[in-house]
Design a protein that fits this description.
Layout lengths: L7 H4 L8 E4 L9 H10 L4 E4 L11 H5 L3 E6 L6 H9 L3 E4 L2 H13 L3 E4 L13 E4 L2 E7 L3 E12 L4 E2 L8 H7 E12 L18 E4 L18
Helix pairs in contact: 5-6
Protein name: 3-oxoacid CoA-transferase subunit A
Keywords: Transferase
InterPro entries: 3-oxoacid_CoA-transf_A, CoA_trans_fam_I, CoA_transf_BS, NagB/RpiA_transferase-like
Length: about 230
C-alpha cells in the first residue's frame, strides 16, 4: 500500500462536503497546518470538525470558520476565537461542547474498539441531557459513546514511508488517539524518513493506523497566548 503523497492537496483530494474530520494537536501546538490550509483552498463545505479547540481568528481552524466551511464544532475549549463566538451566538454554527477528559476518552475508546463508557463528568448539567445515567457505588455516571470520524488529520515531528509517527512533547496530545479513531488517517510530518530509520522504542503511533503521509512545509508554530515573567524593579 503506497502511503506517501506529494503534498496536502493530493492527500485530501477525495474529501467531500459533509465530511467529519478530527484535527490533532493541543491549542495551536502541533496542529496540522498544511492540511487545514489545503482544506481551505479546496473549499469543501458543511464539515463537522472534532478538535480540543477552535483555533484563533486567523490561524488553525479559525481559517475554516472564517470561510464558513464548518457546519459543526465538537470541542472542549473555544475561548480564543471571536468569529466562533459570533457564529455560535447568531445560530450559524452547531456546537457540541464536551468536557475535555470526556472528549479525549471518547476518541481513545473509538481507537480501542470500545463502543461506550461511563463517566461522572457532566452529570447534573446540560451535558447530561438525553444521556443514559447509571449508578455505580452510589455515584451517578453518564454513558458516553466512542467518537469516530471519516478522517483524522495529525501532524508529527517525524514519520516514515510506512506511516510510523514520532511526536514531539505536547504535540502528541489528542493526536495519538485521533490517529487510531479515523477511518482514514492522514499525517503531515516535519521530516519524512526511510523505513527503518526511526527507533522502534520512540514510535508513538504505529504505521498500521496511518493511511496517508507527506512531508509538510512552512510551519508557523504559533503560540496561542504568550506568558512571560515580569521582572520587578
Amino acid at each position: 500500500m503506497k502511503k506517501v503523497f506529494d503534498d496536502a492537496a493530493a492527500a485530501i483530494s477525495d474529501i467531500k462536503d459533509g465530511a467529519t474530520i478530527m484535527f490533532g494537536g493541543f491549542g495551536l501546538c502541533g496542529i496540522p497546518e498544511n492540511l487545514i490550509a489545503a482544506l481551505k483552498k479546496k473549499d469543501v463545505k458543511q464539515l463537522t470538525c472534532i478538535s480540543n479547540n477552535a483555533g484563533v481568528d486567523d490561524f488553525g481552524l479559525g481559517l475554516l470558520l472564517k470561510t464558513k466551511q464548518i457546519k459543526k464544532m465538537m470541542s472542549s475549549y473555544v475561548g480564543e476565537n471571536a468569529e466562533f463566538e459570533r457564529q455560535l451566538l447568531s445560530g450559524e454554527l452547531e456546537v457540541d461542547l464536551i468536557p475535555q477528559g470526556t472528549l479525549a476518552t471518547r476518541i481513545q475508546m473509538a481507537g480501542m474498539g470500545i463502543p461506550a463508557f461511563f463517566t461522572p463528568a457532566g452529570y447534573g448539567t446540560e451535558v447530561a441531557e438525553g444521556k443514559e445515567v447509571r449508578v455505580f457505588n452510589n455515584k451517578h455516571y453518564l454513558m458516553e459513546y466512542a467518537l469516530h470520524a471519516d478522517y483524522a488529520f495529525v501532524k508529527a515531528w517525524k514519520g516514515d514511508a510506512m506511516g510510523n509517527l514520532v511526536f514531539n512533547k505536547t504535540t502528541r496530545n489528542f493526536s495519538t488517539s485521533m490517529a487510531k479513531a479515523g477511518n482514514i488517517t492522514i499525517a503531515e510530518v516535519e521530516e519524512l524518513v526511510e523505513p527503518g530509520e526511526l527507533d522502534p522504542d520512540h514510535i508513538n503511533v504505529a504505521g498500521i493506523y496511518v493511511h496517508r503521509i507527506f512531508q509538510g512545509s512552512n510551519y508557523e508554530k504559533r503560540i496561542e497566548r504568550r506568558t512571560v515573567k515580569i521582572e520587578g524593579p
